[in-house]
């Protein structure tokens, strides 16, 4: 009788935080007072906003894929001490037809040794199969290689980790890029991230020709099945003529 004594409060709290992050809420209160009677200025449409910097390799980080992965899995990486298990990218950048970027490793990934090894990964596999792509054809990477305690990227580390994610995209130079969730989207697209659908224009300024699409993270789709129809529309944007 009474409350459920087996409630996993940590997973429940992390799930709630993820829900609000996906909804665009990243702070509880404003740092400065606000006059709620003054109308809020609406941002200019995305098409009128300046494009984010091109995702090309940044100086100071390893310039090759193998060297970059070795650095990210090493003790000098900014997220190296978050968890004993680190999960690096999987797939071959030379043969992958699609690059998928997620935010953090799931709890099952550290044991399995690869990203999206659990329920979320099985859903992703079905999503990709629906557009004719298998995991073996995919390069799968994450903004973090170690899972944060709360399951989301700490704000204090976000800037450097986002720079590393953009650097990796610049190294891989994928033909097609799928961004799972707002954390991955903002890491690559900067202020232009956060909206699902075709975001190629925000990424491509002539230095990186890439079909980029942002959509819901599989964990959100598991919690909110009503979003699957929208996610399917996003995925269809990645289908090329020779895939049909």
From TrEMBL:
Origin: domain of life: Bacteria
Keyword DNA repair included in the entry's annotation: yes
Pfam family, one: UDG
One Gene Ontology molecular-function label: 4 iron, 4 sulfur cluster binding
SUPFAM superfamilies: Uracil-DNA glycosylase-like
Cell membrane as UniProt keyword: no
GO biological process: DNA repair
Residue intervals passing through the bilayer: none
Keywords in alphabetical order: 4Fe-4S, DNA damage, DNA repair, Hydrolase, Iron, Iron-sulfur, Metal-binding
Domain Uracil-DNA glycosylase-like: 91-236
Protein name: Uracil-DNA glycosylase
Organism: Sphingomonas desiccabilis
Lineage per the UniProt record: Bacteria, Pseudomonadati, Pseudomonadota, Alphaproteobacteria, Sphingomonadales
